């Protein structure tokens, strides 16, 4: 599935990646379920893989209900 509802609005993979990253990204993969609950509100978390630069690939996580987001960077 390519588009999802996040905090009451429809987002594309690129838009979701930008919400997690805080700025524009070069490319994003399809959105998927993360099979985990949000640590802040207990809502459903979705995931998206994206490239913020030509040398980096990041997996981002975003709650569908609140502002919480995270990524897999060390």
Short description:
With 74 residues, the protein is mainly beta.
Major β-sheet annotation = 5 strands, antiparallel
Shape: globular
Order of SSEs, N→C? EEHEEEEE
How far is the first residue's CA from the last residue's CA?
Answer: 28 Å
How much is the radius of gyration in Å? Answer: 11 Å
How many distinct beta strands? 7
**Percent of residues in beta strands:** over 45%
Query: Average pLDDT, to the nearest integer?
Result: 96
Q: Helical proportion?
A: 10-25%
Protein name: Small CPxCG-related zinc finger protein
InterPro entries: DUF5795
Organism: Halorubrum halodurans
Pfam families: DUF5795
Features:
mainly beta; Small CPxCG-related zinc finger protein; five-stranded antiparallel sheet; 74 residues; DUF5795; two-stranded antiparallel ribbon; globular
How would you characterize the overall build of this protein?
The protein has one domain (4-68). 12% of the residues lie in helices and 47% in strands. It has one helix at 13-21, and strands at 4-6, 9-11, 27-28, 32-37, 44-53, 56-63, 69-71. The mean pLDDT is 96. It contains one helix and seven strands. The N and C termini lie far apart (28 Å). It is mainly beta and 74 residues long. It holds the Pfam family DUF5795. InterPro entries: DUF5795.
Annotate the secondary structure layout.
Blueprint: E1 4-6, E2 9-11, H1 13-21, E3 27-28, E4 32-37, E5 44-53, E6 56-63, E7 69-71
Antiparallel strand pairs: 1-2, 3-5, 4-5, 5-6, 6-7
Organism: Halorubrum halodurans
Pfam family, one: DUF5795
Protein name: Small CPxCG-related zinc finger protein
